[in-house]
C-alpha cells in the first residue's frame, strides 16, 4: 500500500497500459472476459483518482503528489508528474467517463480485443497530458492519445470513416508538429523542459537574442506554435472542420470520449502552458482569442441548428459549448490577476466538466436510438416519446443540461464565464448571447423532431425501451449533472485555489 500511496499518479496513469498488455494474452473468442475484464480494470484508475481527490488539499498552492525521475539527463528532461486543482478535476472526469464508455461498447462485436486495447491506451494518453509536468513528457502523451482514436474511428466508424479518420489525424498531427518544434526550441534556450521551472523563467526572457534571433521573434514563433496546436484540438474556429466528421463517423463510445475528454486537452494546454509561459503575448492577442471564441459560440450553434443528422447536430454543439471555455481563457489572457479572470477561468474549467458529462450523455443517447433504428436522420423519427417514454425522459433531461437549464450543470459554468467576461469583453459577451439563443433553438428542434409530433408508424412495435446496461451508463452522468447544478461548490472549491494561484 505504501508503494501505491507514494506513486499514486503513476498507478493511475499506467494501470490501463498494464491491463492492455494482459488483454493481449486473452483469446479473441472470450468476448465476455475481454469486456468485463476491461471494464473492471478501468474502474481501478477511477477508484485511485477518487482516493487522490480525498487526499488532495485544496487549500495548498502549487502541485501535489509529485513524482520525479530523471529519464534523459543530456536533455535535462524528467519523468515529472503532479496535479493541482485544475488537472485533478480533469483526471476525475477522464477516469469517470472511461468505464462508462467501455460499458457502452459492450455492443461492439467485431475485433473486441483490439478495440478494448486501443481504448485503454487512449485513456493513458489522455491522463498523461493532465499529469505531466515535463514539456517533452507532455508532448509524448499528447501524441499517444492521437493514435488510438485514429484507429477507433478508422476501424469501427461509419461509412465515411476513412475520410473522417484521415482528416482527424492530419489536423491534429499538423498542429502537433509545431508543438514539438516549439517545445524543443524552449528546451534548448531555457536548458530545461520542467514546466514549473519554465513558468518561472521563460517569461523573463525579454531582450537580447536567442538562437541568433531577437527574443520577441523567438517567443512569438513558439507562442503561435502552441496556440495553433491547442486551437486545433479544442477546436477553435476556423480549425474546427475535422470535428463534425470525426464525431459523426466515430463509434458511440469514441464520440463520448472525443467530446468528453479529448477536446479538453486543447483547453488544458491553453491554461497550463500558453497563459503561464507567454503572459505578454497572450495579453496582446487576447482580444483576437475572444473574437474567435465568440465566432465558435455563434457559428457552432447555427451549424447545429442547420443539421438533420442527430449525431452531427450534437457534434456542432460541442464547438458551441467549447467556445465558452475559450472565452474564459481569453479573459484570463487579457485580464490576468483580476477577479474577473478568476471567475471566468473557474467557469471555463467547470464548463469543461459539465460539457464533458452532457456531451458524452448526448452522444450515447444518439447511439442508443441508432442501434435500434440504424438511422440518425431526425426526419425519420417523430413521436418516439409515445413508444419510448423512459428513453424520451432521459433525452429531455440530458438535452436540458446541455442547453444550460438552471439547476443543471451547464447553467452555472456558462454563467461564471459570462460574468467574468462581461466587464472585460462586453461586445464579445453580448454577441455570444446569439449563440445561447440558437443553443435553445437547436436543442428544442432536435427534441421536437425526435420525440414529439405524429408517430412514425415505421417504428411501431419495432423499438425496444432503453435497457438496464444502457441505464447504468447514462444514470451516473445525469446524477452528476444534477449535483453540480444544485451544488457546484464541492467542485469549484477544488478548482478555485489553483485558478487563484495561476490567474
Task: Summarize this structure briefly.
The chain has 503 residues and is mainly alpha-helical.
Explain this structure to me?
With 503 residues, this protein is mainly α. The protein has a domain at 278-503. It has helices at 2-6, 8-23, 31-55, 85-104, 112-131, 135-144, 146-156, 161-190, 195-201, 215-233, 242-249, 252-277, 279-305, 310-334, 339-373, 384-387, 389-403, 409-421, 426-451, 468-486, 489-502; strands at 64-72, 77-83, 209-210, 213-214. The strands form two sheets. It has a two-stranded antiparallel sheet. Strand 3 and strand 4 (213-214) form a beta hairpin. It is globular. The two termini are 36 Å apart. The mean pLDDT is 88.
What are the defining features of this structure?
503 residues; mainly alpha; 21 helices; 4% strand
Amino acid at each position: 500500500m505504501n508503494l501505491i500511496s507514494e506513486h499514486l499518479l503513476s498507478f493511475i496513469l499506467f494501470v490501463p497500459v498494464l491491463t492492455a498488455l494482459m488483454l493481449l494474452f486473452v483469446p479473441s473468442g472470450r468476448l465476455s472476459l475481454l469486456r468485463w475484464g476491461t471494464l473492471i480494470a478501468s474502474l481501478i484508475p477511477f477508484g485511485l483518482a477518487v482516493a487522490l481527490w480525498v487526499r488532495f488539499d485544496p487549500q495548498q498552492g502549487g502541485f501535489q503528489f509529485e513524482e520525479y525521475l530523471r529519464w534523459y539527463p543530456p536533455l535535462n528532461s524528467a519523468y515529472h508528474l503532479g496535479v493541482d486543482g485544475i488537472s485533478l478535476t480533469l483526471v476525475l472526469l477522464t477516469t469517470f467517463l472511461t468505464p462508462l464508455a467501455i460499458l457502452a461498447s459492450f455492443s461492439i462485436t467485431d475485433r473486441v480485443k483490439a478495440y478494448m486495447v486501443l481504448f485503454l491506451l487512449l485513456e493513458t494518453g489522455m491522463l498523461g497530458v493532465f499529469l505531466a509536468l515535463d514539456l517533452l513528457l507532455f508532448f509524448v502523451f499528447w501524441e499517444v492519445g492521437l493514435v488510438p482514436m485514429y484507429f477507433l474511428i478508422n476501424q469501427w466508424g461509419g461509412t465515411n470513416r476513412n475520410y473522417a479518420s484521415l482528416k482527424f489525424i492530419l489536423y491534429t498531427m499538423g498542429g502537433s508538429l509545431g508543438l514539438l518544434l516549439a517545445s524543443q526550441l524552449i528546451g534548448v534556450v531555457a536548458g530545461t523542459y520542467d514546466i514549473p521551472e519554465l513558468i518561472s523563467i521563460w517569461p523573463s526572457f525579454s531582450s537580447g537574442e536567442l538562437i541568433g534571433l531577437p527574443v520577441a521573434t523567438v517567443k512569438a514563433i513558439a507562442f503561435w506554435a502552441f496556440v495553433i496546436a491547442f486551437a486545433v484540438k479544442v477546436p477553435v474556429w476556423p480549425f474546427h472542420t475535422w470535428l463534425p466528421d470525426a464525431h459523426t463517423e466515430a463509434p458511440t463510445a469514441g464520440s463520448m470520449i472525443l467530446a468528453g475528454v479529448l477536446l479538453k486537452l486543447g483547453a488544458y494546454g491553453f491554461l497550463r502552458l500558453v497563459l503561464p509561459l507567454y503572459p505578454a503575448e497572450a495579453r496582446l492577442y487576447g482580444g483576437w482569442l475572444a473574437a474567435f471564441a465568440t465566432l465558435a459560440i455563434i457559428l457552432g450553434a447555427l451549424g447545429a441548428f442547420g443539421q438533420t443528422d442527430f449525431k452531427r447536430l450534437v457534434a456542432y454543439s460541442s464547438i458551441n459549448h467549447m467556445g465558452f471555455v475559450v472565452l474564459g481563457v481569453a479573459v484570463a489572457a487579457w485580464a490576468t490577476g483580476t477577479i474577473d479572470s478568476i471567475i471566468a477561468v473557474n467557469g471555463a474549467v467547470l464548463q469543461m466538466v459539465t460539457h464533458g458529462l452532457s456531451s458524452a450523455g448526448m452522444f450515447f443517447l444518439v447511439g442508443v436510438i441508432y442501434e435500434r433504428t440504424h438511422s440518425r436522420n431526425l426526419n425519420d423519427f417523430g413521436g418516439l416519446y409515445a413508444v419510448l417514454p423512459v428513453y424520451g425522459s432521459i433525452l429531455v433531461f440530458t438535452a436540458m443540461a446541455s442547453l444550460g437549464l438552471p439547476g443543471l450543470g451547464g447553467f452555472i459554468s456558462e454563467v461564471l464565464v459570462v460574468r467574468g467576461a462581461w466587464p472585460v469583453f462586453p461586445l464579445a459577451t453580448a454577441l455570444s448571447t446569439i449563440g445561447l439563443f440558437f443553443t435553445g433553438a437547436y436543442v428544442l428542434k432536435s427534441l421536437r423532431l425526435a420525440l414529439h409530433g405524429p408517430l412514425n408508424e415505421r417504428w411501431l412495435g419495432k423499438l425496444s425501451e432503453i435497457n438496464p446496461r444502457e441505464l447504468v451508463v447514462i444514470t451516473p452522468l445525469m446524477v452528476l449533472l444534477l449535483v453540480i447544478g444544485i451544488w457546484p461548490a464541492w467542485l469549484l472549491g477544488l478548482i478555485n485555489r489553483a485558478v487563484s494561484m495561476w490567474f
